[in-house]
Write a structure and sequence with these properties.
Layout (H helix, E strand, L loop, with lengths): L1 H19 L26 E7 L2 E9 L8 E9 L2 E6 L2 E4 L2 E8 L2 E7 L2 E4 L1
Antiparallel strand pairs: 1-4, 2-3, 4-5, 5-8, 6-7
Length: 121
């Protein structure tokens, strides 16, 4: 019995070292937070940088409702399309969900939410 316990105590550290590998070999045994770690890799790649897209001021000629008999009129209106950040990754660019203006007709505009998308490099 004592021999079995001694053998188990001696073999346990060897089995643990065999599973871990060489801890100083970062290319074959990366830390989970390293970009080349299998746990950190995804279809989007690794974040390289964030690119700011500034807000845009747009001047619109908006149709104004008028009483019957008066010719149609337009009024200038300044609106601001909000800015956002594009995320550049090692494999492409990720555009977040954002708002934009869509022209439906002459003098008729509507806010539209653009869905998030990923564009490959």
């Amino acid at each position: 019995m004592r021999g079995k316990v001694l053998a188990l105590v001696l073999l346990l550290p060897a089995a643990a070292l065999g599973q871990v590998g060489n801890p100083s070999d970062f290319s074959n045994n990366p830390h989970p937070g390293m970009p080349w770690s299998p746990t950190m890799q995804s279809a989007y790649g690794t974040v390289v940088r964030y690119i700011p897209v500034a807000p845009q001021r747009v001047t619109l000629d908006v149709a104004v409702s008028t009483p019957a008999g008066i010719p149609p009129q337009t009024q200038r209106q300044v609106v601001q399309i909000p800015g956002y950040y594009v995320t550049e990754t090692t494999t492409g660019y990720y555009y977040p969900e954002r708002w934009t203006l869509e022209q439906l007709n002459v003098g008729v505009y509507q806010w539209r939410k653009v869905p998030a998308e990923f564009r490959r490099k």
